Amino acid sequence: ILARYLLMLSFNNCLDVARHLPYLFHVVSFLVCSGSLSMRASTHGLVINIIHSLCTCTKPSFSEETQRVLRLSLDEFSLPKFYLLFGISKVKSAAVTAFRSSYRHANDRWFGNDRFAATNPDRERLSLPSLEVITDALL
User: Fold this and answer.
1) How far apart, in whole angstroms, are the C-alpha atoms of residue 85 and residue 13?
2) Which of 41, 102, 108, 121 to pair with 114, CA 20 to 30 A apart?
3) Buried b vs exposed e over 80-100: b needs ≥16 C-beta within 10 Å?
4) What separation in angstroms does the CA of 52 have from each of 16, 102, 104?
5) Residue 72 in 3-state DSSP?
6) The model's pTM
7) Section 53-57 average pLDDT
8) Which DSSP letter does residue 132 get?
9) What is the tens place of the pLDDT at every residue in 78-118?
């Protein structure tokens, strides 16, 4: 729920993204490729919204070169390569997937039914080199 709040607040720069950028990217680096499919899509969406907010914010004002790099980063994070790194390679729309309800899966785990935890086909593993690629791109 908190990740979805961050996702919604990051849209249209309601978080003052520029001032909180290190904290937001720290949260992203912890959440990347974890949780349900909707959670992973929310994390990816958070990154997209952060970069978009930086592209459109008026304060601070960025140089033309920095604006160009931000737009390239926005395009880069929308590539299938990053969908794979975020563990959402099998989705058609990360934005739609981010707001899908994962209630049934959470409910099964809450009542001790671990059949989804052990055999959930919607889980993808994140390797350390993949995390390195993501953090390098965020830096």
Assistant:
1) 25
2) 41
3) eebbebbbbeebeebeebbee
4) 12, 26, 32
5) helix
6) 0.79
7) 89
8) H
9) 998 998 888 888 776 666 666 675 555 444 444 444 444 44
Handedness of CA 92, 95, 98, 101 (dihedral sign): negative
Residue 87 DSSP label: T
User: For residue 133, which amino acid is it?
Assistant: V
- The tokens for 94 are 């990360």
Lowest mean pLDDT of 36-45, 50-59, 75-84, 89-98, name the range: 89-98
* DSSP H or E segment with residue 98: helix 94-98
Which residue has tokens 């390797």? Answer: 127
Q: How far apart are CA 49 and CA 11, in angstroms?
A: 5
Q: At what angle do helices 64-77 and 37-56 cross, to 10 degrees?
A: 160
Residue type, 51: I
Name residue, tokens 């033309």: 64
In the chain, the amino acid numbered 104 is: R
DSSP state of 36: S
